[in-house]
Write a structure and sequence with these properties.
This protein has one domain. It has three helices and six strands, in the order αββαβββαβ. It has helices spanning about 1-15, 55-60, 110-125, and strands at about 20-25, 30-35, 65-70, 80-90, 100-105, 130. Strands 1, 2, 3, 4, 5 and 6 form a six-stranded mixed beta sheet that branches. β4 (about 80-90) and β5 form a beta hairpin. α1 (about 1-15) crosses α3 (about 110-125). It is globular, with a radius of gyration of 15 Å.
Length: about 130
């Protein structure tokens, strides 16, 4: 399954220019691809990498980072596209705060909708059933 995710991630990055990463879930059963929709923040899913970057921190504390997770089922080659926003919220426990993600409701706004459509088109061309 990881190989399928890596192939999809590579094709998405090549065709969209957006940063991608592929991985497996905690149970090593399902694979996924994470796409960063920000040309500035090019480490999808690696939010802690931004803690030393003042510009990235400002984005995470204000508007947040929009990412799209493509979840690939190990059973039937069906994928689910899940757009979400990640923010760094103040925390009483940690100095830096805590990362919080929130799903973005449909319909997707502007550029995010166009990116999601492009991801769907590329995935379907590669033989995935995108939902």
């Amino acid at each position: 399954m990881l190989r399928a995710a890596q192939g999809l991630a590579s094709e998405l990055e090549k065709e969209t220019g957006l940063a991608t990463t592929a991985g497996l879930d905690d149970h090593l059963l399902e694979s996924f691809v994470i796409i960063s929709t920000s040309p500035r923040l090019r480490k999808p899913g690696q939010w802690f990498e931004y803690l030393q970057d003042p510009e990235a921190l400002a984005i995470l504390r204000n508007i947040g980072l929009m990412e799209i997770r493509v979840e690939i089922s190990s059973h039937d080659n069906v994928t689910r596209i899940r757009p979400y926003v990640v923010r760094l919220k103040p925390s009483s426990v940690g100095v830096e705060g805590e990362f919080v993600s929130e799903d973005i409701k449909l319909p997707l706004p502007g550029e995010l909708g166009r990116i999601s459509t492009r991801i769907r088109e590329i995935g379907e061309r590669l033989g995935f059933s995108m939902s």
